[in-house]
Amino acid sequence: MPLPGSNGQSQQQHVYSREYAESLDLQDPLRHMSREFLIPSKDELKAENFDQVESRNSTLPASESSVYLCGNSLGLQPRLTSTRIQQYLTTWATQGVFGHFKRLSESPLPTWLHVDGCASDNIIPIVGALPSEVAVMETLTANLHLLMSSFYTPDINGRHKIIIESKAFPSDHYAVESQILHHGLSPRTSMITIEPPDLSVPVLTTSYILSVIAEHAATTAILLLPGIQFYTGQYFDIPTITKAAREAGMFVIWDLAHAVGNVPLQLHDWDVDAAAWCSYKYLNAGPGAIGGMFIHERHSQVSSRSSEGFVNRLSGWWGSDKESRFAMENHFVPIPGAAGFQLSNPSVLDITSLNASLEVFKKAGGMAPLRERSLKLTAYLESVLHSSPFFNAGFKIITPSDPRQRGAQLSLRLGPGLLDVVVKELEKRSVVVDERRPDVIRVAPAPLYNTFKDVFEFRRAFDEALEVAQKAKAGLIQAQGTTEQQKTS
Ligand SMILES: Cc1ncc(COP(=O)(O)O)c(C=O)c1O
Fold it and tell me: Cα(229)–Cα(436) distance, rounded to whole angstroms?
């Protein structure tokens, strides 16, 4: 995506300037959204003692903010979160068990009995689902297991394989491996891992994925892929891959950890079978907060009260029909839709936090304007990185350059031996990104709260960090050379 004035070398210099970044912020219709979040200040990040941070006045902007580009790992806290959580605590303190059923007028919070449904309603536009297709529940890996426990019924003489990518997030890998073992099968024969044909370019093209699907068409039960790959930031072509895999008779599950709240999704229209996500990254619900899942309506119908009338599942009382839930009759009849896959009554504390963040998404106008903003922010990041003197000398961008094939994040592969010093130097400058050993940092301007100025500040700190790291490396090589010489002489 070209930026205004981004052609030619002198223009590149112009683009990489604080004034230019600030002018982009001024033109940004969503520039006010960053004020909705608590951005750690530089001093706060350096604090060692809780007393130093406890007195933070959350109604004022922090004096000197850090540059936080790590929403792909943990999203920042919306200011609204503490208000809503305090309201939840007040309800609990003053109403006790009645909070389950009694709605206090003027309260912005739903009753606890309906809190999960309220969160699902809020998340439906973010994932593009019908109301019955989403449940806010459990956590990501647990939900992947729950999905596979219902929809992975392998037949060693027919469909028994699960296809994932070789660089899948370890939790997905473990989940798949253990599901296969759980059915008495071997991952050696039943788990197919898609390996990038060229390991130096770790992205997987759609045509390559389709060729793996075709190769294992007759024997694969499940295809499990990430919407956005955690390491490279590659955004897969969900509709095309889903169509091919479904036509080949597979059940298609997407892990949307890095996609939800990052890019607009249309899971129902894309005919996805199922998906699961967490809410602590771009959804900003807080560390380890409740996750969610999507199940296409075709898989969650309840045609009769007998167990033949619905897909079998690992069940719990919260998935059972709301009318008879408290009758304690020991007769499980699932709620039609994804909600029928719930197990326990959910953490209201978690959902209150998630709903607070989803209110902020609504305030921003939803995913369409956020994606528009995100495309510009990430294009700006790419553009200032291209003009860095270290580009292709000290680092490469491994995320696809086609904006349709990526979300907010760019993954940067550093030259050998630079990572430790670069990370330390960025930290010294209060620039927060995350590292994937041995040589990658991931930089994610979050669509909701990062600014063009953050991107400019990152480039400045990154150049400085690379310079220190290259000098340190050269010094080390020189020192090693001297030692070798001393050894041989
Ligand atoms: C792609 C992906 N899958 C799975 C997980 C594991 O999530 P959880 O610990 O919430 O189960 C993560 C966590 O970051 C992830 O990024």
Answer: 13
Structure token pair of residue 294: 């999507």
Best residue for ligand 1 mutational test, from 230, 262, 436 (most atoms within 8 Å of Cβ): 230
Beta bridge partners of 412: 397, 441
Band of pLDDT at residue 324, cut at 50, 70 and 90: confident
Whether 445 lines ligand 1, by a CB cut-off of 6 Å, is no
Decide: 405 and 234 in contact? Cβ < 8 Å: yes
Regarding the beta carbon of 262 and ligand 1, being less than 6 Å apart is answered no
Looking at the chain, the whole-number percentage of residues with pLDDT higher than 70 is 94
350 lines ligand 1 (CB under 6 A): no
| Max CA distance (Å), the chain | 88
What residues pair up with 253 in beta bridges, in sequence order? 224, 274
**Quick check: CB of 30 below 6 Å from ligand 1?**
no
Does residue 231 have its Cβ closer than 6 Å to ligand 1? no
Say how many Å lie between the CA of residue 257 and the centre of ligand 1: 6
What is the pTM assigned to this prediction?
0.94
How long a stretch of residues is the chain?
A: 489
User: What is the 167 CA–ligand 1 centroid distance (Å)?
Assistant: 13
> pLDDT value at position 5?
43
Residues 446, 380: Cα–Cα separation, whole Å: 13
How many Å from the N-terminal Cα to the C-terminal Cα in the chain?
58
334: DSSP letter: B
Q: Is 358 annotated as a binding residue?
A: no
| Assigned token pair, 328 | 């304690």
DSSP string of 290-342, one letter each residue: --EEEE-GGGS---SSSGGGS------GGGB-TTTGGG------BPSSGGGG-
* Alpha carbon distance 41, 282 (integer Å): 20
Which pair of tokens denotes residue 69?
């580009």
Q: Measure Cα distances from 86 to 61, 108, 286 in Å.
A: 20, 12, 15
Report whether residue 282 contacts ligand 1, using a CB cutoff of 6 Å: no
Q: Ligand 1 pocket, 141 CB below 6 A?
A: yes
Q: Over 80: is that where the pLDDT of 1 sits? A: no
How is residue 133 written in tokens?
Answer: 């297709």
Q: Is 92 annotated as ligand-binding?
A: no
Look up residue 305 and give its two tokens: 């009260």
The answer, yes or no, to whether the previous bond of 239 is cis (omega within 30 of 0) is: no
The protein residue with its alpha carbon nearest to ligand 1, atom 10, reads 140
Residue 84 has pLDDT above 90, yes or no: yes
How far is Cα 281 from Cα 284, in angstroms, rounded to an integer? 6
CB 282 within 8 A of CB 71: yes
> 255 among the known binding-site residues?
yes
Question: In angstroms, what is the span from residue 358 Cα to ligand 1's centroid?
Answer: 20
